[in-house]
Amino acid sequence: MYNIALLSISDIKTISIIKTYWSMLLLSLGQTMLLTLLSLVFAFIIGLIFGIMNVTKIKPLNFIATVYVDGVRGVPLIVLAYFTYFGIPMFIRSIGFENFRFTALTAGTIALSMNAGAYMAEIFRAGIQSVDKGQMEAARSLGLGYGKSMQKVVLPQAIRTMIPSIINQFIISLKDTSILSVIGFPELTKAGNIIVAINFDVFSVWGIIALMYMIVIVTLSRLAKKIERRVNVGNER
How far apart are CA 72 and CA 111, in angstroms? Predict the structure, then answer.
């Protein structure tokens, strides 16, 4: 009986929190999705550039790409976020731009894009290398330059196989946005901290936050699996 009573009280508190803070929670979820989408767009560009640099036969470009990928992946995202939000503006102010600063969205996008871009570079590298080398050789024999051969022949085939991995990276980046609450970005975890500070109901608040993350991530995971099945069927034809 005692346990049932406690459960009922918890349910009432959870419903009350949802009714009171639903707009704040949805807005924070929207901010989380915005940051994730922005960072993934820039990470896609970064990954494409460094992924291609990694597979070229020009050794200096290979070296630069390797240093970037290994260097960024070796730095925790929280350190990258602090460096971007506090370190870079402080350095720029020290050279004369006294009022320079990043917004939390800008700093968060830069940090998350750099982090995700390093992993996207590896996804692009693996995707490009999965395409038979004969495809590039055939395109070059038809008179296409390296760039056009990569753009018209290799990349379309590579991206087709990379789509599930790109969606998985989107999911990882979505979860990583929670780390950026440390620089004050108003994403879902930051909203949870604020609500807990107001009503001290840790169990209900974090239960709601966890459920919201779970719904979005499970939906994206199902989408990734469905796309992966379609890609596999297309490759078999």
Answer: 10
Residue 12 pLDDT: 67
Domain 19-236, what fold? MetI-like fold (1.10.3720)
pLDDT digits (tens, 9 = 90+) for 99-127: 899 999 999 999 999 999 999 999 999 99
| Token pair for 175 | 């979860």
Q: Is the pLDDT of residue 203 over 50?
A: yes
DSSP secondary structure letters along the chain: -HHHHHHHHHHHHHHHHHHHHHHHHHHHHHHHHHHHHHHHHHHHHHHHHHHHHHHSS-HHHHHHHHHHHHHHHTS-HHHHHHIIIIIHHHHHHHTT-TT----HHHHHHHHHHHHHHHHHHHHHHHHHHHS-HHHHHHHHHTT--HHHHIIIIIHHHHHHHHHHHHHHHHHHHHHHGGGGGGGT--SHHHHHHHHHHHH--HHHHHHHHHHHHHHHHHHHHHHHHHHHHHHHHHHH-
Q: How confident is the model at residue 151 (pLDDT cuts 50, 70, 90)?
A: confident
11's tokens: 């349910």
* Average of per-residue pLDDT across 161-167: 85
